[in-house]
Design brief:
The structure holds 2 protein chains of 2 kinds. By secondary structure, chain A is mostly helical. Chain A is built from 18 helices and 2 strands. In chain A, helix 5 crosses helix 10, helix 7 runs antiparallel to helix 8 and helix 12 runs antiparallel to helix 13. Helix content of chain B is 23%, strand content 20%. In chain B, the strands form 4 sheets. In chain B, strands 1-9-8 form a 3-stranded antiparallel sheet, with no helix packed on it. A 3-stranded antiparallel sheet of chain B has the order 2-3-4, with no helix packed on it. Chain B has a 3-stranded antiparallel sheet with strand order 5-6-7, with no helix packed on it. In chain B, strand 2 and strand 3 form a beta hairpin. Chain B starts with a helix and ends with a strand. The chains are: A mainly alpha, B alpha+beta.
């Protein structure tokens, strides 16, 4: 096909001509319209819907501040700690860039946890948005990796011992574990080799993957369309103009909705950066202001707050707790056999896997450390299964039976409690509470195929609930 | 005319061979990249034995030295401390150190004191918890204190996940740490000079 360029009148503005020149060669206007300008989103979005664009803003903050930090930081075990202090004290405005980056890390997790809560409340992960959820889940994994690799870089006591603990998690895998953690560290202890490779992952490898996943997340979203607080498909009701009657173009409507969110966010973010960058030891742990010492673990070591719910599950897995897990596995297999119509082969396979796991948890078989790592990993990975675990006939919490709300509240409390206990020093009482919370955490997900379909559901409206304002 | 008839089997064969050769080269390159993650020759060479002077170490005191990048504790136990090991014998998970962590307990070490028989008061152990590699902290004081059982006999507490060890580095039952602390191969050059990472049989 011959190349045809649209002809504009000779007196058209220069800007229009320039855009036309580009559009004939690259789909600039089309991309803008498909992805945002003429992307029709449900008109009933509430404040829960600002966290997606806010996460994008934090990503930009992290990348930009990160670029400037790398200009002064030295990824060398003998120089790293001092170079961070150099940024803080001697580089003009370096403290601001560093505090923006460290606060941004925590802000990223706050925003992403709220963004995920929204998905939980309104069933945003349900068909046809499973892939959006999976891309989002992968982004969450990347963020955890970014945070973990980045935390080693200041080479403080918490950096060092945190990395030591997490790398040793891999050592719990039978047979290959010790060699695997040696391979990850590149040395017999966390050392300069480890610091250099973590630096490489933090500044280039993971960010590249992250950007690709963010693009995939957005492309998938704009392909199937956004969910909304009513959990109904606005594309089922198309108006005469070919657009959903309950949809409005993202620009200008949600542009301004989101900019309002951005101003609120930046107000809080700046307040933290300027007045409480350490956030009482939660955003920057006090022990990390001491240079790494391979001979002495700080008296109280805890991961940064965003990892602690999962970390508590790791810590709760003692050899006593394994008996609870074994009993749970037996009950779960019984439940599947008695109440589901799964194919016989699948039921047998599930029973076999459970049997192997139960045998592996017997005293003298694989130790509690290994199962702690399994439950720790499982507590994160189980999130990926959410679109297939939830089988309720409606998406949104608004039209679910009222008692479902209490299930979510109990789950929320258990998750926050796990997070709280994870930052505390280990204690016998805390161990018991975190074991109870771990059971609630897994029960919530694993029993979801049963409880999410139970109860009397409310009628779902044909149109979104919306009051003009 | 169907697509199949247009396929030139000679060229298809060459295509498959080219892809296979390219795949092998790609895998080999990936293998080289993966291998760069292994400890370097320099890291491997840095594991020499270390010599420690313990002439200033008093009974009940501990000193820490570095061997292979890890803390090695040298604890000179008092007679009371040695007695406590009899009381902890049935409270520890592996009293005879039959399940080693990263290295077997040297055969010249006593099962209970986990020290060389001729210097049974001196415990030499790698201060790295067998759970996730934190370095436990000394809790030599007996009795009631936070994070410890009320009948505490003195020992070590791992600050990360609360594993406890007795004064011979043996892990208590039902704790996250599965194994006792490592006892490295070592020998006494004199009563006050120890070499860690080397014994009569050579380097560990």
């Amino acid at each position: 096909m011959a190349f045809v360029e649209k002809k504009l009148p000779a007196d058209a503005p220069v800007v229009d001509k320039a855009l036309n020149w580009v559009d004939s060669r690259f789909p600039l206007t089309k991309l803008w319209n498909d992805q945002w300008g003429k992307y029709y989103a449900p008109k009933n979005f509430n404040f829960w819907y600002i966290f997606g664009s806010m996460a994008m803003l934090v990503l930009v903050i992290q990348i930009v501040t990160g670029i400037f930090l790398v200009m002064h930081y030295k990824p060398d075990a003998t120089l790293a700690f001092a170079s961070v202090e150099y940024i803080m004290r001697d580089v003009p405005w370096g403290w601001l860039v560093r505090y923006m980056h460290s606060t941004g890390a925590s802000a990223f997790f706050i925003v992403v946890y709220l963004h995920m809560t929204r998905a939980f409340l309104y069933g945003s992960y349900r068909k046809p948005r499973e892939l959006i959820w999976l891309f989002g889940f992968a982004i969450f994994l990347c963020l955890m990796a970014e945070a973990f690799f980045g935390y080693l870089l200041p080479w403080g006591q918490m950096s060092y011992w945190g990395a030591q603990v997490i790398v040793n998690l891999f050592g719990a895998i039978p047979f290959i574990g010790p060699d695997l953690s040696l391979w990850i560290r590149g040395d017999y202890v966390v050392s300069d080799a480890t610091l250099n490779r973590f630096f490489s992952f933090h500044v280039i490898a993971i960010p590249l993957v992250l950007l690709g996943l963010v693009a995939a997340h957005l492309i998938a979203l704009h392909e199937v369309g956004s969910n909304n607080p009513d959990g109904i498909e606005i594309k089922d009701n198309i108006g005469p103009d070919g657009h959903p009657v309950d949809g409005i173009p993202s620009h200008p409507y949600y542009t301004f909705h989101d900019i309002f969110g951005v101003t609120v966010f930046l107000t809080i973010f700046s307040a933290v950066v300027f007045f409480a960058p350490e956030m009482g030891g939660y955003f920057l742990e006090y022990n990390n202001f001491i240079p790494a010492d391979s001979l002495k673990t700080p008296p109280h070591i805890a991961p940064t707050w965003y990892f602690t719910p999962f970390y508590s599950i790791l810590r709760a897995t003692t050899s006593e707790f394994l008996f609870v897990v074994q009993a749970g596995a037996v009950a779960y297999v019984a439940l599947i056999w008695l109440t589901t119509k799964l194919p016989q082969m699948l039921k047998i396979a599930i029973a076999a896997i459970a049997l192997i796991a139960i045998a592996g948890m017997m005293p003298g078989a694989l130790d509690a450390k290994f199962w702690g790592v399994v439950l720790f990993g499982g507590s994160v990975m189980i999130l990926a299964l959410l679109p297939w675990l939830d089988v309720s006939p409606v998406k949104s919490i608004r039209y679910r039976p009222d008692w479902h709300k209490y299930v979510y509240i109990v789950f929320g409390i258990a998750f926050v409690t796990l997070g709280y206990l994870g930052v505390q020093a280990p204690s016998p009482a805390g161990e018991r509470v975190s074991q109870v919370c771990a059971v609630i955490y897994f029960g919530f997900f694993m029993l979801m195929p049963w409880w999410s379909a139970m109860g009397t559901f409310k009628p779902v409206p044909k149109r979104v609930t919306f009051a003009a304002h | 005319m169907s697509i199949e008839k247009q396929v030139d089997s000679g060229r298809r064969g060459l295509l498959v061979a080219t892809c296979a050769a390219g795949g092998v080269a790609g895998l080999a390159t990936a293998g080289a990249l993966v291998s760069t993650f292994q400890p370097s020759e320099r890291a491997k060479a840095a594991g020499a034995p270390v010599e420690v002077d313990i002439s200033s170490l008093k009974p009940g005191e501990m000193q820490t030295t570095e061997w292979r990048g890890k803390p090695v504790w040298i604890l000179k136990r008092t007679p009371e401390m040695m007695d406590s090991l009899k009381k902890t014998e049935d409270k520890v998970a592996d009293p005879k150190s039959e399940k080693p962590y990263t290295m077997d307990m040297p055969e010249y070490c006593d099962k209970q004191s986990r020290a060389r028989k001729e210097h049974s008061d001196i415990l030499i152990a790698v201060g790295i918890c067998s759970h996730l590699g934190c370095s436990p902290i000394s809790k030599f004081q007996e009795g009631i204190q936070p994070s410890l059982p009320d009948d505490w006999k003195g020992g070590f507490l791992c600050p990360c996940h609360g594993s406890t060890f007795d004064l011979a580095g043996r892990v208590y039952k039902n704790k996250p740490a599965p194994q006792n602390l490592d006892v490295p191969r070592h020998m006494f050059l004199s009563d006050t000079k120890i070499i860690i990472g080397k014994d009569e049989k050579g380097e560990a």
